[in-house]
């Protein structure tokens, strides 16, 4: 039980740090990672699409912070994101890249903040958070994948009925 309390307080410290930096984190991820996806390459000429993906990521990130990165409470939101990506014909590879590159970007951002003493937690707590956040992103990806696959199954079923 004590470990859960430590993780929860670590989440709160990190959430308090992330809150004023979330736009910077999202924009950095978008400029360094998202632009490498085929989804971006196919839709980059549509200015609104870039704003839309940032808005979606911002909303999901805010919900993750507010729920202390509780993937189960965000399952429906992630499922719907998967359906949206399927409707846009985003590849599974791009979805995987989007989710896990965001995780990696977030953790690198936190590590850099720790190194320059902007984030005031121990390296052990940052490591523990990294493990917990990987679980969050993995469970989130499972819900996204479920929504993605359901979209295609429903469309195939509808095509033959």
UniProtKB/TrEMBL annotation:
Protein name in UniProt: Uncharacterized protein
């Amino acid at each position: 039980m004590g470990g859960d309390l430590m993780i929860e307080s670590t989440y709160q410290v990190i959430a308090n740090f992330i809150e004023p930096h979330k736009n910077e984190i999202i924009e950095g991820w978008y400029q360094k990672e998202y632009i490498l996806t085929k989804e971006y390459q196919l839709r980059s000429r549509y200015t609104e699409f870039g704003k839309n993906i940032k808005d979606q990521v911002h909303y999901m990130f805010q919900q993750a912070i507010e729920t202390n990165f509780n993937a189960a409470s965000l399952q429906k939101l992630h499922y719907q994101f998967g359906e949206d990506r399927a409707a846009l014909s985003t590849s599974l590879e791009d979805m995987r890249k989007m989710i896990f590159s965001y995780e990696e970007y977030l953790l690198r951002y936190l590590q850099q903040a720790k190194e320059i003493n902007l984030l005031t937690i121990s390296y052990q707590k940052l490591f523990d958070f990294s493990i917990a956040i990987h679980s969050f992103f993995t469970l989130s990806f499972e819900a996204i994948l479920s929504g993605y696959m359901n979209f295609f199954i429903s469309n195939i079923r509808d095509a033959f009925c």
